[in-house]
Amino acid sequence: MSIYQLTQIGEFHENHCEDYVLAQSIGSDRQLLAVLDGCSMGEESFFASALLGHILKKIAKQAYFLEAHHTTAKQTLAEQLPTVLKQLFTELRSVKNQLYLDTNQLLSTLVVAIVDEKNAEAEVGIFGDGLVVANGVYWEYDQDNRPDYLAYHLATDFEEWWEKQEQLLSISDLKDLSLSTDGILSFRNFEAQVYLDPLRAIDDLLINSTNLQNERMLVLQLKQLQDETAACPGDDLGMVRIIL
Fold this sequence. Notes:
The chain is of the alpha+beta class. It is 32% helix and 30% strand.
């Protein structure tokens, strides 16, 4: 199993990359992957994506510890994903209250997956915009620049919110899975004022099998893509890829 991660500030941004990426063991044979994209119209959006990402890391580490010290049966992936998200809701509510944060300070999209390496399966949730690529097939989620952020629903009962979620994927026979923020669709040759075909960036970064032996594969592929096309991402870019 190999995991590759990349964040890259976009040409439209100056001070901070608002995307955050994580890959964290959540069990002996499971990985929690996520990419988050802070809302540029929110307040300190780089903080929102990083905060949610760190909370998810904490949840994954706790689950890993509990699995090692308990003999109870594992949840299925379809059970574990909402369990993780419910914990995220609880932690986020607590932090919001403790730090006196406004909802606008917590706006971040989330694409999250739990991958079972042993059974080659994944459960994926897309909350806002983002891209998922599995075994060479991709799903693009675009909410027309009006993502339904998690932070909008912190006052809602979690089960009520979860029942309404439709942007979910269950993937079997998994060999190769990538999650990306929508920055992957923003590559542009700024000198020529021409946008790059999004399929070129998706193929080169999330499907291509070159340099898989190098842990910096995504960095190398991104540099090669930029050298060949003179295109750079306009929006921030965050991606994680796992190959079983």
